[in-house]
Structures are given as C-alpha cells and as structure tokens.
Amino acid sequence: MSKFGKVAFLLAGISLVCMSITRYILGEWVPFCWLSLGMAVFFLGAGIVKDRAFFKEFFTMKTTKEGMSMGVLILLMVAVLAIVNYIGVRHYATFDFSSAQSNSLADQSVKIVKSLDSELKVYFFYKKGVEGNEENRRSFRELIKKYQDINPRIQLNFVEVNEQPDLARDFGVDKGSGTAFVEYKGRRNLLQKIDEQEFTSSLVKVTRDKNKTVYFTVGHGEAKLDEAKEGLGLNALKLMLESNRYTVKQLPLIQEPVVPADADVVVIAGPIQNFLDHEIKALEAYLTQGGSLFIALESQNPANLDKLVRKMGIELQNNYIFNVVDTVMGQGINQGPAMGSVFSPMNEITKSFGQSEVTLFRHPQSLLKVTEPPGMSIDELVRTNPKSMAFKTLNLKEDGPIASYALVDQVTGQWDSDPQAKPFAAVIAGDVDFMTNQMLYQNLNRDLVLNSIASLAKEESLISITPKEPQATQLILTETKFAIFLFAFLIPLPLVFLGAGITLHLRRKNA
User: Fold this and answer.
1) pLDDT at 250
2) pTM summary value
C-alpha cells in the first residue's frame, strides 16, 4: 500500500472518530457530523482508488479467499446466534419446580392480567440514597416481571422524585420510601404492599368500571368518618376505602328510613344511642333484598341492634375479653389489646391469614352462636386463642372460664326464611376500635376490614389470592436407611477420592 493510501485511511479514521465524539457530547446530530462523515467517505474512497491495484491483487490471493470464507462463516454464526437470542427474548417459557409453586402467579392473577386490553402503567417512586430503596426496587421488579411474562402490555417505570418532580407532584408523592401506583385507562390505585395479593387487587380496582358504594350510618353516636386527629375516629378507614376506589357516603336512617338502592355495603360502626324500630325495619328490608351489612358493636352498647343480631343466630355477650399470659409468677391477665389468632381456614375473608399472625381488639365482647336460623349459615371468622377469659366488667373481678371466644362472625343466607328473599351477607364484630385510626394499621386489622368489605361488596376477586410461602423439604431417615447412607456413601466416598488422589500423585511423581 502506498504512503498516500495510508495517510488517506488514517484521515478517514480520524474523521469518523471526530463525528462520533461530537455526536456523543452534543447528544444530537449537527451539521458538523455530516462534514466529518463526508470527509471520511472522501479519504476512504481516495485511498481505495489510489491503491486499487494493490487491493485487486490482495482480494485475488488464495489466502485472502480462504480468510474471507472463514469470515463469512463467522458472520453467519454470529447472525444465527443473534437471531436465536432475539427469538428467545421475545418468545420464552418459564417453569416453576418449587413444591408450593411460590414462583408462579395464582390462577386469579393470570386471568386478570390476560384480560388487559390496554397498556397498564406501573410507577415506582423513590429517592436516591434512601435506605432500603434498592432492595425494594429489586423485589418490585421481580414481582412485575411475573406479570409482564403473561402480558407485555404492562409497563414498569422507576421514577426518581427529585429528577421528575412534576410527575411526583401529579401522583401526590413527596417521599422516597418506595411508593408505587398502578394506572389503567386514567384510573389509578396506590399499592400498600409489594406482593402478588396487593398488586392483583390493585389490578381489579383499576379495571373496575364502576366504584362500589359504602354507606356509614350516622345519628346514633357512631365513630366519626371525618375525625382524623382523634384515635377513635374513622378517617383513616375512609381514606383507605376511597384509595381502593370505594365511594363512601353517610346514611341518616333516622331521617329517611330507606337504604339507598346504590348501597353495596352498609356499615354500623360503634353506635351509642339506640336505633329506632323503623330504622331496624329498613335494615331488615335491605337484607331481604340481598343487602350486605357490617356491624361493629361495643360491649354494653347494643344500640337496640341485639334483636337484629339474634335473628341471625348470634347473641351479644356484653362482656370483655382478655388474653391469659404465662409469667414467672404464674398465669396473669394481659390488660392490653386482645388478640384474635384463630381464623376460619375456609372463609375467603380470613383464609390467607397466617397461623402466627393476629388481629388486635380493644376490650372486645364475645359473640355466641346460639343456633343457625333456617336458610342461614354462621362462620366464626376470628376467635381468640384457647387461653382467654371473659369478664362482666372492666374491674376484672367476675370472670368466666378460660376458653377460646369468637370475636367476629359472618352470616349468609336468606333473611327470615323468606324463599323470595335474595341471599344477604353480614359481618358482625364485637368491637369497633380495631377499625379506628388508632388500630386500623396494626397487624392484620387492615386486612380483616378490607377483606370483609370486599366480600360484602361481592368482590371476592380482591381477596381470593392466598400468598404462597416456600415449603421446607423434610428428609426423614429410619435407622436402617441412615446406616446404609453412612456406610455406603458417607464413609466410602471420601476414602475413594483420597485413594484416587494418592494414586495419581504417585504415578506423576514416578513418571
């Protein structure tokens, strides 16, 4: 190759480098890039024309042809690998060999994800430098990947709050603790936790075309929905329901004793004053039409609803339940919150609760299942552990036997044995404090309330996903099997490897 050709190729390379650096620094294509590219083409063409005889001779050599043939084979192999990888990324299958199928989504989740007919956007807001954010992002990415494997319409976006303040402000995010939202067709829902149950529940909420309506009765001294500062208010519950796309309204039955037709659930939360007879008749008429009722009553304050509850086969005991604890001085009474730790294993509301988890109540009363009326069935959702006691008053003097007491029941069926009545549902709790601002987010209280409302609103898809927990594989060996394992594998194998190593060493040494 001539000296001119070498200089021309060098200048062509310099021109390409200048073009690349300019494009990288400026971040866009500018006229100078066209100039650099033109100079590179010019110098490259000049060098080839000048030394065309050299290149003609070079490409006709036998070694060049063989080298080019090998190069073509290498390029074909690279192309095949690229195509295989592209197809593998676009079309792939995963297999879950875990015994509990803990790496797979539930059938309910798969069904909902497949039904998405538009783009679903998932936003994860964070701040750089906040402790635990990286771990939360990794866990969230792994969770969303399972959904994306089923439907590619799911788009995951990680948003740094300081870098995109307008978007964070639009979602009402001012903290970087790992807040996540789901958005579908303009509807948004906040994720409370990072797990399959919460994410699939959010999918159900944002894909729901119409909000469910929950009415809270007023006029009898019930806990106040708008009370946010006091611990016994229900403002936290109201905000939680609204964030889950429920419409919350007040129901003054004492003024107009008719339950509205759009009422999906009616909640009676800790009334102090008595319900009048025409109000109770309105509630009975609502149940006859297949209504859903949530009643939370404090001990010693039945508010004239004890007759309504008794018609469901349940009797309010008007006592106070406390847990018994073992101390160094013997058994004692735990005067703190009473724990409900025994849950109905088959009911949709509580079947996802773990055996070591609890719900907390403040001085609850127990519920006694007297008898199941014809056409109704009673399921005790929450009970205390067998080491609990009932007292008539809070001075803890007159006590009952140590036993397990029911605190929350569910009643379903047809009201008053009327064959024309539609199936109703009711949840009855012997305490209202567990759903107040002070205790709503303690332990499983939030899940108990939300699951109960979802079940009463006939949205079982929100609560039917049971978290999958990894199961330990147990290896149980009898004495005979252990002896075989010991003398057939555990002892001989190390000796065999040791002998083989010594033999190889001696052979190499004497070779």
Assistant:
1) 96
2) 0.65
